Amino acid sequence: MPNEALLPVAAPSDDPPRARALREYLVDRIVALGVRDARVLRVMREIPRHHFAPEYDLGEAYGDYPLSIGYEATISQPSLVGIMSEALELSGHERVLEIGTGSGYQTALLCHLASHVDSVELVPELAQRAASTLSALGCTNVDIHTSDGWAGWPQGAPYDRVVVTAAPEVLPPALLDQLADRGRLVVPVGSQDRDQRLERWRKAGDALYKQDLGAVRFVPMVHPPPTTTS
Question: Which is catalytic among the residues 76, 85, 103, 119?
Fold first, then answer.
């Protein structure tokens, strides 16, 4: 398990044949069991996940399980990243708000599947490393913001899609407010001591429609610590 001191970003050319083989096996033999979107599968074959988890060896980086990246955050299970990416129903023209940049792996997929991504991360160290990794991989259509994800990113609203990569106990109203008409919001909702459910919300005018996509397990979506004054 990594400590709080994050390792440097991998060089963009660091994608050896073994990494590519492990990635193809992961996507074709595991992720593809639950994901049918050809664009999502293609991008997952291309994005070097090990760049986003340099603390781990290649076998761990391409295992189908979450990995700790410090600061009580994780890089999500690849098959679940694929399911959430597919659930957004992206065609390539959407503006996306991501809450919880974390390692930046989900962000990288979104950069290849959408037009523009605003990603909000509470932990400055994670935001900085994710931004460096994404830049090294040539992701230029993303802006990383260090802020409270519960508030979304109103400066860029409305968004065609919103995705949340940590679990709030209740859905933050600001995220629905920042969702465009006919937009989609994918979010895991629930506490750590009871079932979390992956929800997809659709907005149609003044109406909101919720779909339950199944049980999941995510780290909690936290508020920033209170500021103190002397």
Answer: 76
CA atoms within 13 Å, Cβ hemisphere of 100: 27
State which CATH number among 3.10.20.90, 3.40.50.2000, 3.30.70.260, 3.40.50.150 fits the domain covering 17-216.
3.40.50.150
C-alpha torsion sign, points 169, 175, 181, 183? negative
Could you state, in order of their start, the residue ranges of all structural domains in the chain? 17-216
| pLDDT tens figures, 58-68 | 999 999 999 99
Q: Is the pTM of this model over 0.85?
A: yes
Q: Containing H/E element for 209?
A: strand 207-216
What values do phi and psi take at 163, rounded to 5? -135, 140
Q: Which residues pair with 179 in a beta bridge?
A: 159
CA distance 157 to 96: 9
| Contact call for residues 109 and 163 (beta carbons, < 8 A) | no
% of the chain exceeding 70 in pLDDT: 92
Q: Is 79 part of the annotated catalytic residue set?
A: no
Half-sphere exposure of 25 (CA within 13 A, CB side): 12
Separation of alpha carbons 88 and 185, rounded Å: 7
For the stretch 115-174, pLDDT in tens is: 999 999 999 999 999 999 999 999 999 999 999 999 999 999 999 999 999 999 999 999
